[in-house]
Design goal:
Nict_dMeBzImd_PRibTrfase_N; glycosyltransferase; Rossmann fold; binds alpha-ribazole-5'-phosphate; transferase; Nicotinate-nucleotide--dimethylbenzimidazole phosphoribosyltransferase; alpha/beta; binds nicotinic acid
């Protein structure tokens, strides 16, 4: 007998009435129809997701999920594995890019350690879950056991529960894990049926020989696990990472619990693709912040029919690109909520 997983459910739907009211309001604001471009639809979408004609982005919740990757032993990253744990210190000490952005945005930062290769001693401000001492090398064996994959998915769901309890109006997921552009590219290859060449990139800074080697490692893994790659959960388990599974669990939980999610860079967008394959209904809850420099990012965004807001050549991760888009969301809401209507301002609403 097959048991249903928690994400196999009818998720919440956007409030069509609130979205219709917001759409109607947009037609009455003192500007030519459509002149605020993507910001108009953004306000309407947020109205539907938040269930009110006038949406807002108060305190965003930024969860950073961290985990190590066994595939790093294949020489696929420009940086050593120890950086994952070192950056966990930096996140809570306030010196990482996302720490600065979170302060500027008055966001709540939730730092979750899902398992570094060398387990860390307890760090104040970090939630240590230690699903394992990093994943296994997926070029040789499955990255995770089924139990580890489910535990990581649940860790993401828990962060969304905390976000809701804290009254957050937007969920941002970030990631930290040396080697995770390799895992993300492998996942995208398996889910999109694309060769590694189409999805690999330099990550933290590989040269062209390094990128070619990274593609070969991924191709080997796709052959090794071919028989298991027909099911999205098994794709995630065989090729993913703890932090990528946590992101997927968080995006699914956003649809479950009715919280809009703003998706960050290449790795987060691949986690979003996994999510949509696990339950297509969660797509409605995902907003896409940016298209970054990692070459596969655009392909994955296209597969999700996503229109990202920004293109800034970012290739950092940590949730940084999503954080950078928060002011745009706030301004889209302010325009929608505070502009005068044609009637209020006594401005003619008729083109000649
Ligand atoms: C100091 C430092 C801070 C980072 N913050 C995010 N990443 C980013 O780089 C890593 C992925 O790249 P690759 O697959 O090439 O290892 C991830 O940890 C990602 O979050 C960082 C990387 C470094 C070196
Ligand atoms: O787009 C990203 O998320 C990204 C790209 C390179 C390295 N780390 C993250």
């Amino acid at each position: 007998m097959s048991t249903a997983f928690w994400w196999q459910q009818a998720f919440r739907q956007a409030d069509e009435q609130a979205a219709a009211a917001a759409r109607q309001r947009q037609t009455q604001l003192t500007k030519p129809a459509g002149s605020l471009g993507q910001l108009e639809q953004l306000a309407i979408t947020l109205a539907g997701l938040q269930g009110r004609e006038r949406p807002s982005i108060g305190q965003p919740w930024i969860a950073i999920f961290a985990g190590d990757h066994g595939v790093v032993e294949e020489g696929v990253s420009a940086f050593p594995q120890a950086v994952t744990g070192q950056m966990l210190h930096n996140f809570v000490n306030g010196g990482a890019a996302i720490s600065v952005l979170a302060r500027q945005l008055d966001a709540l930062l939730d730092v979750v350690d899902l398992g570094t290769a060398v387990p860390l001693p307890p760090l104040p401000g970090v939630r240590h879950l230690q699903v394992g001492a990093g994943t296994r090398n997926f070029a040789r064996e499955p990255a995770m056991s089924q139990a580890q994959c489910l535990q990581a998915l649940e860790a993401g769901r828990d962060s969304v529960r905390r976000a809701r309890a804290a009254g957050a109006e937007l969920f941002i997921g970030g990631e930290m894990g040396i080697g995770n552009t390799t895992a993300a590219a492998a996942l995208a290859c398996a889910l999109l049926g694309q060769p590694a060449d189409a999805l690999v990139g330099p990550g933290t800074g590989l040269d062209s020989a390094g990128v070619a080697h990274k593609a070969q490692v991924i191709e080997r893994a796709l052959v090794l696990h071919a028989a298991q790659l027909n099911d999205p959960l098994q794709v995630l388990r065989h090729l993913g990472g703890f932090e990528i599974a946590a992101l997927a669990g968080a995006y699914l939980a956003c649809a479950e619990q009715g919280l809009p999610a703003l998706v960050d860079g290449f790795i987060c967008t691949v986690a979003a693709l996994c999510t949509v394959r696990l339950n297509p209904a969660c797509r409605d809850w995902l907003l896409f912040a940016h298209c970054g420099a990692e070459p596969g990012h655009r392909l994955v965004l296209d597969a999700l029919q996503a229109e990202p807001l920004l293109q800034l050549g970012l290739r950092l991760g940590e949730g940084s690109g999503a954080a950078l888009a928060v002011p745009l969301l706030r301004l889209a809401c302010a325009l929608h909520n505070e502009m005068a209507t044609f009637a209020e301002a006594a401005v003619s609403d008729r083109p000649v």
